[in-house]
Amino acid sequence: MAIMLSKLALAALATQASAACTRASLQAATAEYLDALSSGKTAFSALANSTVAYQENDVVVDLSKGVLGQGGIKIDFNRSLYDTTECASYTEIVATTKHAYVIGTRLAFGGADNNKITKIESVVCDDGDWLFNAAGSLSYNKKENWDPIPEGKRDSREVIKAAGDAYIDAWGDASVKPPFAASCARLEGGSYISGNCKLNFSPPFKVTNRRYTIDEELGAVDIFHNFPFLDKAIARDPGTQTNNLLRVEGGQIRYIHENTVCSKKGCNK
Ligand SMILES: *[C@@H]1O[C@H](CO)[C@@H](O)[C@H](O)[C@H]1NC(C)=O
Ligand SMILES: *[C@@H]1O[C@H](CO)[C@@H](O)[C@H](O)[C@H]1NC(C)=O
Protein backbone atom coordinates (compact mmCIF):
# COMPACT_ATOMS: atom_id res chain seq x y z
CA MET A 1 0.00 0.00 0.00
CA ALA A 2 2.79 2.37 0.93
CA ILE A 3 4.49 1.62 -2.39
CA MET A 4 1.27 2.19 -4.31
CA LEU A 5 0.72 5.50 -2.60
CA SER A 6 4.19 6.73 -3.38
CA LYS A 7 3.74 5.72 -7.00
CA LEU A 8 0.50 7.69 -7.08
CA ALA A 9 2.22 10.60 -5.41
CA LEU A 10 4.98 10.49 -8.01
CA ALA A 11 2.44 10.38 -10.83
CA ALA A 12 0.66 13.37 -9.30
CA LEU A 13 3.95 15.24 -9.07
CA ALA A 14 4.79 14.43 -12.68
CA THR A 15 1.39 15.74 -13.82
CA GLN A 16 1.91 18.88 -11.78
CA ALA A 17 5.36 19.44 -13.27
CA SER A 18 4.20 19.12 -16.86
CA ALA A 19 1.26 21.45 -16.21
CA ALA A 20 3.34 24.15 -14.59
CA CYS A 21 3.92 26.39 -17.57
CA THR A 22 1.59 29.35 -17.41
CA ARG A 23 0.87 32.25 -19.72
CA ALA A 24 2.72 34.48 -17.29
CA SER A 25 5.83 32.28 -17.21
CA LEU A 26 5.90 32.00 -21.01
CA GLN A 27 5.46 35.77 -21.29
CA ALA A 28 8.29 36.49 -18.87
CA ALA A 29 10.74 34.14 -20.61
CA THR A 30 9.77 35.39 -24.09
CA ALA A 31 10.30 38.98 -22.95
CA GLU A 32 13.77 37.96 -21.75
CA TYR A 33 14.54 36.47 -25.15
CA LEU A 34 13.41 39.72 -26.85
CA ASP A 35 15.54 41.80 -24.51
CA ALA A 36 18.52 39.55 -25.26
CA LEU A 37 17.88 39.94 -29.00
CA SER A 38 17.69 43.73 -28.73
CA SER A 39 20.78 44.00 -26.56
CA GLY A 40 22.82 41.31 -28.35
CA LYS A 41 23.12 38.89 -25.41
CA THR A 42 23.58 35.18 -25.93
CA ALA A 43 23.17 34.27 -22.25
CA PHE A 44 20.09 35.01 -20.14
CA SER A 45 18.45 33.34 -17.19
CA ALA A 46 15.44 31.87 -19.04
CA LEU A 47 17.78 29.63 -21.06
CA ALA A 48 18.08 26.11 -19.60
CA ASN A 49 21.84 26.33 -20.19
CA SER A 50 24.37 27.72 -22.64
CA THR A 51 24.09 24.78 -25.04
CA VAL A 52 20.33 24.63 -25.69
CA ALA A 53 19.37 23.42 -29.16
CA TYR A 54 19.48 26.42 -31.47
CA GLN A 55 18.39 26.44 -35.10
CA GLU A 56 18.06 29.13 -37.73
CA ASN A 57 16.29 28.29 -40.96
CA ASP A 58 16.41 24.61 -40.00
CA VAL A 59 20.20 24.63 -39.59
CA VAL A 60 21.86 24.09 -36.20
CA VAL A 61 24.06 27.10 -35.41
CA ASP A 62 25.99 28.32 -32.41
CA LEU A 63 24.00 30.85 -30.34
CA SER A 64 26.79 33.41 -30.78
CA LYS A 65 26.74 33.07 -34.60
CA GLY A 66 22.97 33.56 -34.89
CA VAL A 67 20.77 36.67 -34.61
CA LEU A 68 21.30 36.88 -30.83
CA GLY A 69 25.01 37.35 -31.46
CA GLN A 70 24.68 40.29 -33.86
CA GLY A 71 25.34 42.97 -31.25
CA GLY A 72 21.70 43.95 -30.78
CA ILE A 73 18.79 44.34 -33.18
CA LYS A 74 16.52 47.36 -32.87
CA ILE A 75 13.07 45.76 -32.66
CA ASP A 76 10.29 47.89 -34.18
CA PHE A 77 7.48 45.41 -33.65
CA ASN A 78 6.85 42.11 -31.90
CA ARG A 79 3.79 39.91 -31.43
CA SER A 80 3.74 36.69 -29.41
CA LEU A 81 1.61 33.58 -29.13
CA TYR A 82 1.70 31.62 -25.88
CA ASP A 83 0.91 27.92 -25.99
CA THR A 84 0.28 26.72 -22.44
CA THR A 85 -0.57 23.19 -23.61
CA GLU A 86 2.71 22.56 -25.46
CA CYS A 87 4.74 24.96 -23.29
CA ALA A 88 6.01 27.02 -26.22
CA SER A 89 5.86 30.54 -27.55
CA TYR A 90 6.11 32.01 -31.01
CA THR A 91 7.14 35.61 -31.66
CA GLU A 92 7.05 37.62 -34.86
CA ILE A 93 9.75 40.30 -34.86
CA VAL A 94 10.20 43.15 -37.34
CA ALA A 95 13.34 45.31 -37.50
CA THR A 96 13.61 47.99 -40.17
CA THR A 97 16.82 49.82 -39.28
CA LYS A 98 20.47 48.93 -39.92
CA HIS A 99 20.22 45.30 -40.98
CA ALA A 100 16.48 44.84 -41.64
CA TYR A 101 14.97 41.56 -40.48
CA VAL A 102 11.67 39.76 -40.12
CA ILE A 103 12.25 36.97 -37.62
CA GLY A 104 9.89 34.28 -36.38
CA THR A 105 11.07 32.53 -33.24
CA ARG A 106 9.61 29.48 -31.55
CA LEU A 107 10.77 28.88 -27.98
CA ALA A 108 10.16 25.41 -26.53
CA PHE A 109 10.14 25.03 -22.76
CA GLY A 110 11.14 22.17 -20.50
CA GLY A 111 12.88 21.44 -17.25
CA ALA A 112 11.31 20.68 -13.90
CA ASP A 113 8.72 23.46 -14.04
CA ASN A 114 8.57 23.74 -17.83
CA ASN A 115 9.79 27.30 -17.49
CA LYS A 116 13.25 27.05 -19.01
CA ILE A 117 13.92 27.48 -22.72
CA THR A 118 15.22 24.16 -24.02
CA LYS A 119 15.02 24.79 -27.77
CA ILE A 120 15.04 27.87 -30.00
CA GLU A 121 14.05 27.74 -33.65
CA SER A 122 14.03 30.88 -35.79
CA VAL A 123 13.05 31.64 -39.33
CA VAL A 124 15.30 34.58 -40.13
CA CYS A 125 14.35 36.58 -43.22
CA ASP A 126 16.32 39.47 -44.61
CA ASP A 127 17.13 41.08 -47.94
CA GLY A 128 16.58 38.68 -50.86
CA ASP A 129 14.15 36.39 -49.06
CA TRP A 130 10.68 35.81 -50.50
CA LEU A 131 8.99 39.22 -51.07
CA PHE A 132 11.08 40.59 -48.21
CA ASN A 133 10.29 44.18 -47.24
CA ALA A 134 10.58 44.88 -43.51
CA ALA A 135 8.98 48.33 -43.82
CA GLY A 136 5.95 46.70 -45.48
CA SER A 137 5.80 44.02 -42.79
CA LEU A 138 5.91 46.70 -40.11
CA SER A 139 3.24 48.92 -41.59
CA TYR A 140 0.75 46.10 -42.37
CA ASN A 141 1.36 44.46 -39.00
CA LYS A 142 0.48 47.69 -37.24
CA LYS A 143 -2.80 48.04 -39.18
CA GLU A 144 -4.14 44.63 -38.22
CA ASN A 145 -6.15 43.92 -35.09
CA TRP A 146 -4.85 40.97 -33.08
CA ASP A 147 -6.52 41.90 -29.79
CA PRO A 148 -7.36 38.98 -27.50
CA ILE A 149 -10.62 37.27 -28.53
CA PRO A 150 -13.34 37.83 -25.87
CA GLU A 151 -13.63 34.76 -23.62
CA GLY A 152 -17.04 33.49 -24.77
CA LYS A 153 -16.03 33.75 -28.46
CA ARG A 154 -12.76 31.82 -28.42
CA ASP A 155 -12.30 28.87 -30.75
CA SER A 156 -10.94 25.61 -29.37
CA ARG A 157 -7.37 24.58 -29.96
CA GLU A 158 -8.61 21.90 -32.37
CA VAL A 159 -10.62 24.37 -34.49
CA ILE A 160 -7.68 26.79 -34.71
CA LYS A 161 -5.23 24.02 -35.64
CA ALA A 162 -7.62 22.54 -38.22
CA ALA A 163 -7.96 25.95 -39.91
CA GLY A 164 -4.16 26.24 -40.14
CA ASP A 165 -3.80 22.71 -41.50
CA ALA A 166 -6.59 23.23 -44.05
CA TYR A 167 -4.87 26.38 -45.34
CA ILE A 168 -1.63 24.49 -45.91
CA ASP A 169 -3.25 21.25 -47.14
CA ALA A 170 -5.23 23.13 -49.80
CA TRP A 171 -2.05 24.23 -51.62
CA GLY A 172 -1.45 20.74 -52.88
CA ASP A 173 -5.01 19.41 -52.73
CA ALA A 174 -7.80 21.44 -54.34
CA SER A 175 -10.46 19.32 -52.63
CA VAL A 176 -9.57 20.90 -49.26
CA LYS A 177 -11.64 24.05 -48.62
CA PRO A 178 -10.11 26.21 -45.88
CA PRO A 179 -12.58 28.30 -43.81
CA PHE A 180 -11.57 31.74 -45.12
CA ALA A 181 -13.34 34.84 -43.79
CA ALA A 182 -14.60 37.09 -46.62
CA SER A 183 -12.12 39.72 -45.40
CA CYS A 184 -9.16 37.29 -45.22
CA ALA A 185 -5.85 39.03 -45.87
CA ARG A 186 -2.35 37.62 -46.36
CA LEU A 187 0.91 39.37 -45.54
CA GLU A 188 3.40 37.49 -47.73
CA GLY A 189 6.88 38.79 -46.97
CA GLY A 190 6.17 42.52 -47.03
CA SER A 191 3.34 42.36 -49.61
CA TYR A 192 -0.36 42.46 -48.76
CA ILE A 193 -3.05 40.51 -50.57
CA SER A 194 -6.52 41.35 -49.32
CA GLY A 195 -9.91 39.68 -49.86
CA ASN A 196 -8.67 36.36 -51.26
CA CYS A 197 -6.40 33.97 -49.38
CA LYS A 198 -6.91 30.91 -51.54
CA LEU A 199 -3.77 29.28 -52.95
CA ASN A 200 -3.55 26.06 -54.94
CA PHE A 201 -0.66 24.68 -56.97
CA SER A 202 -0.13 21.66 -59.15
CA PRO A 203 0.95 18.94 -59.19
CA PRO A 204 -0.46 17.66 -55.86
CA PHE A 205 2.00 17.68 -52.96
CA LYS A 206 2.16 17.37 -49.20
CA VAL A 207 3.69 19.86 -46.80
CA THR A 208 5.61 18.11 -44.04
CA ASN A 209 7.64 18.81 -40.92
CA ARG A 210 4.97 21.00 -39.27
CA ARG A 211 5.71 22.43 -35.84
CA TYR A 212 2.76 24.20 -34.17
CA THR A 213 2.32 26.92 -31.59
CA ILE A 214 -1.33 27.56 -30.69
CA ASP A 215 -2.83 30.37 -28.61
CA GLU A 216 -6.60 30.22 -28.00
CA GLU A 217 -6.66 33.69 -26.43
CA LEU A 218 -5.31 35.27 -29.63
CA GLY A 219 -7.11 32.78 -31.90
CA ALA A 220 -3.73 32.12 -33.45
CA VAL A 221 -1.68 29.23 -34.75
CA ASP A 222 1.85 29.40 -36.04
CA ILE A 223 3.25 26.60 -38.18
CA PHE A 224 6.93 26.15 -39.00
CA HIS A 225 7.12 23.89 -42.03
CA ASN A 226 8.82 23.19 -45.33
CA PHE A 227 7.55 24.25 -48.73
CA PRO A 228 8.27 21.79 -51.55
CA PHE A 229 9.10 23.81 -54.67
CA LEU A 230 9.37 27.56 -54.19
CA ASP A 231 13.16 27.68 -54.27
CA LYS A 232 14.58 26.15 -57.45
CA ALA A 233 17.91 25.43 -55.75
CA ILE A 234 16.37 23.31 -52.97
CA ALA A 235 15.07 19.79 -53.49
CA ARG A 236 11.29 19.28 -53.06
CA ASP A 237 12.10 17.15 -50.07
CA PRO A 238 12.77 18.68 -47.57
CA GLY A 239 11.91 21.95 -49.37
CA THR A 240 12.31 25.55 -48.29
CA GLN A 241 12.12 26.63 -44.65
CA THR A 242 9.01 28.72 -44.17
CA ASN A 243 6.49 29.78 -41.63
CA ASN A 244 2.79 30.61 -41.60
CA LEU A 245 1.07 32.47 -38.79
CA LEU A 246 -2.75 32.56 -38.85
CA ARG A 247 -5.38 34.45 -36.89
CA VAL A 248 -8.71 32.65 -36.69
CA GLU A 249 -11.92 34.45 -35.64
CA GLY A 250 -15.17 32.52 -35.14
CA GLY A 251 -13.64 29.51 -36.90
CA GLN A 252 -12.64 31.57 -39.97
CA ILE A 253 -9.19 32.58 -41.16
CA ARG A 254 -8.85 36.36 -40.91
CA TYR A 255 -5.10 36.99 -41.29
CA ILE A 256 -2.14 35.00 -42.62
CA HIS A 257 1.52 35.98 -42.35
CA GLU A 258 4.06 34.07 -44.39
CA ASN A 259 7.84 34.44 -44.12
CA THR A 260 9.97 32.27 -46.37
CA VAL A 261 13.74 31.95 -46.55
CA CYS A 262 15.43 31.82 -49.98
CA SER A 263 18.81 30.25 -50.67
CA LYS A 264 19.54 33.00 -53.21
CA LYS A 265 17.89 36.35 -53.92
CA GLY A 266 14.17 35.92 -54.67
CA CYS A 267 14.35 32.09 -54.37
CA ASN A 268 16.13 31.75 -57.76
CA LYS A 269 13.04 32.84 -59.67
C1 LIG B 1 7.47 43.84 -27.59
O1 LIG B 1 6.14 44.31 -27.73
C2 LIG B 1 5.55 44.73 -26.49
C3 LIG B 1 4.09 45.02 -26.77
O2 LIG B 1 3.93 45.91 -27.82
C4 LIG B 1 6.33 45.92 -25.97
O3 LIG B 1 5.78 46.35 -24.75
C5 LIG B 1 7.79 45.50 -25.75
O4 LIG B 1 8.54 46.61 -25.35
C6 LIG B 1 8.37 44.92 -27.04
N1 LIG B 1 9.70 44.38 -26.75
C7 LIG B 1 10.80 44.77 -27.38
C8 LIG B 1 12.07 44.16 -26.91
O5 LIG B 1 10.82 45.58 -28.31
C1 LIG C 1 21.14 21.85 -21.82
O1 LIG C 1 19.73 21.83 -21.94
C2 LIG C 1 19.25 20.95 -22.94
C3 LIG C 1 17.75 21.15 -23.03
O2 LIG C 1 17.11 20.94 -21.81
C4 LIG C 1 19.62 19.53 -22.58
O3 LIG C 1 19.18 18.64 -23.58
C5 LIG C 1 21.13 19.43 -22.45
O4 LIG C 1 21.47 18.14 -22.01
C6 LIG C 1 21.65 20.46 -21.46
N1 LIG C 1 23.10 20.44 -21.49
C7 LIG C 1 23.84 20.46 -20.39
C8 LIG C 1 25.32 20.51 -20.61
O5 LIG C 1 23.35 20.41 -19.27
UniProtKB/TrEMBL annotation:
PROSITE patterns on file: PROKAR_LIPOPROTEIN
Record keywords: Signal
Coiled coil: none
InterPro entries noted in UniProt: DUF8021
Signal peptide range: 1-19
Pfam families: DUF8021 (PF26061)
Presence of keyword DNA damage: no
Taxonomy, superkingdom: Eukaryota
Domain DUF8021: from-to ranges: 153-260
Protein name, per record: DUF8021 domain-containing protein
The organism of origin for this protein: Echria macrotheca
